[in-house]
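Human
Can I borrow your eye for a moment on a structure tokenisation matter? Give me a protein, with the fold worked out from its sequence. Write it directly below this note and I will take it from there.

Assistant
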Amino acid sequence: MISFNAFFSGFSLGLSLILAIGAQNAFVLKQGIKKQHVFLVCAICALSDAALIFAGVSGFGYVVERYPIIKTAALWGGFVFLSIYGPRSLYSAFSASHALTAGGEEAQGAVKTALLTLAFTWLNPHVYLDTVVLLGSVSTKFSERAGLFGAGAMCASFAFFFLLGYGARFLAPLFKKPAAWKIWSFSSASR
């Protein structure tokens, strides 16, 4: 029963952390609605989370605390990226009157999409705090079952990203309305 408790605790905490609307989730949703490189985007997001969760559960949080330059570099990299992306999204949310439709615009190449996905993931300061620091810290409560806790958090990440990416098609009718996309863009840019 303790094994299930560790896994379920990791799954539920991991899911609660990833549910927040942010630039990465908005990008996954947008790609899902457009039906462009959905598997690639979801796989990059989930595998990146899995690597960071593994690092946190394996003790990388301790390394980050010991060498704060790592945390500082991640925070500044994320700050620069989000300082550019955030205002662009806010401007788009308020100035453009566009709807998002499946196949409504020319598809970006797989390489460009992969690079954007990696940027949304690895340059986001919240991802390090959530996966490496917070999940890594909580995993210590499970001592020898910390790996099961981490596996639960990884499963939550895979489930969330693939459900968001492939479930986005059901939200496509909603996002045909420009107001819906404006609200979503504003919400994701403000986090």
About this structure: The mean pLDDT is 81. Residues 80 and 161 are 25 Å apart (CA to CA).
